[in-house]
Amino acid sequence: MATMSELLHFPPNGDILPANTAVLAIAIITGALLLLYRWALPTPIPGIPYNKAAAKSIFGDIGPMVQHTKKTNRLYDWLVAQNVQLNSPIIQLFTRPFTRPWVVVTDFQETRDVLMRRGKEFDRSKFFSDISGGITPENHFLMKTEDEFRRHRKWVQGIMTPGFLHQVAAPHTYHVCMDLIRLWEQKARLAQSHPISAEGDMHRTALDAIWSIVFGADSGKSTISAQLDLYSSINPSGRSQKIQMLWHSCQRHPIDQQSTLCSQSPRAQNFLVSLFAAHDTTGTALTWALKFLTDNQDVQRKLRAALQSAHATAFAEKRQPTVQEITGSVIHYRDAVVEESLRCSLTESAIIRTAMKDVTLLGYHIPKGTEVFFMGNGPSIFTPAFDIDDSRRNPTYFATNDRIGSWDTNGMADFIPERWLVDDGKGNKVFDAAAGPLLTFGLGERGCYGRKLSYVEMKLILTLIVWNFELLPCPKELSGYGAIDKMTHGPEQCYVRLAKVAM
Ligand code: HEM
């Protein structure tokens, strides 16, 4: 009679048993790995378009995204390019393993509705706090829109009142900028019509301005005035090493004070973040503005003519317009140039929010916790909008009639300040901030808190620069439009060739 092992085809000594066990174990491990792999694959949010190949890899869209950022130093143009490629105003991207996809929306009207009216559903982004919260974790910038945020916000609210803007912020900015004008006179003397880099000076001017606005510092101790002392004292054969040494020593002072502030109270952190938020953004926007004015000589001439006509007394008296004359004047073309510079600068290219609960966006279900990127650098602002059926919009979208106009689809991406000027019905062209879409400051309760201050600064600084200097065209090699995404979207190159305006 056959033994049990013969019946089961096991050899009597049982040698094969471990091999079978091994096969079984391998099969189980392979099955488990397969299950694990399938579990680790991105889980798309139903219905929202995505890159099909990305959904088949646990690394999702990471490969192409990293390749792009490594090659270009930019992220946001890649995000919006995926909307265009997938031909949809809303898409999802798998950018981090084991987490929800990012949702990317590129439609200004929808974005505006969300930011202005759906703040309870979409609040300050967790992703944003993760990348920028390390230095000042208790800053209101990072908080959800709750009581604590509003309490913190109160601590800094004074710096945006009209009184403070005109009586404190404007004079400080003016003094800092006059130092810049004097510095550039020295630089122009030394450069003798050669182009000079302007990016650092724009950032330092913005830093000095906000520093003196917040701390009431004497502009005589600013980074610009320190440079001014130095450049005034050298002749064209001056030694650049000395400049470097002095430059570093004059920068150390503010940096030490910042780090002391960092470790202090949440109130100090709020001021510190205002410094960062104000300096880098305004500096970047000014840098772009100089490039646009340099490359659009007709706009520059028109702006100078508008300024000289509005400040006719100062022009006739061959002097600088005073701070009161600048802040007290209505100059539509100047305001249009500032707004168009901000639009085309893309200083901030995306506004990010976290879905606070399960919500619906453009007809799709978005699970709680999803990060949503609202893009300001693509269709509906710089290229024609996607066609979106009204049935996909949220009821809040139809609750008001205050929608912003849209841009003429011709030349949407071009630098044309005139797009902000509308007919007032009496034959005059007047500046209208609602003429068309702009997302550079975000919108709604969590939109940029310092927007008014940045307008005061930009109007003053651009007025004084264009009043004093012609920004002559620069060689092509120094006039590129490459950009880098850091905390802001800054130009790779910004050079100016300065000639003093004859008065
Ligand atoms: C050209 C200049 C500036 C640009 C382009 C800019 C842009 C922005 C953007 C895009 C946001 C996020 C908005 C959102 O999430 O909806 C923001 C927030 C903020 N900005 Fe600005 N900003 C500028 C200047 C300033 C200045 C001068 C200050 C001065 C204090 C400032 C203070 C802030 C603060 C405190 C927040 C956080 C608001 C909140 O969380 O509620 N910004 N800014």
UniProtKB/TrEMBL annotation:
Its needed co-factors are: heme
Q: Which family does it belong to?
A: Belongs to the cytochrome P450 family.
Keyword vocabulary terms for this entry: Heme, Iron, Metal-binding
Annotated residues for binding of heme: C448
Record protein name field:
Cytochrome P450
* Single GO term (MF): heme binding
Q: Which domain of life is it from?
A: Eukaryota
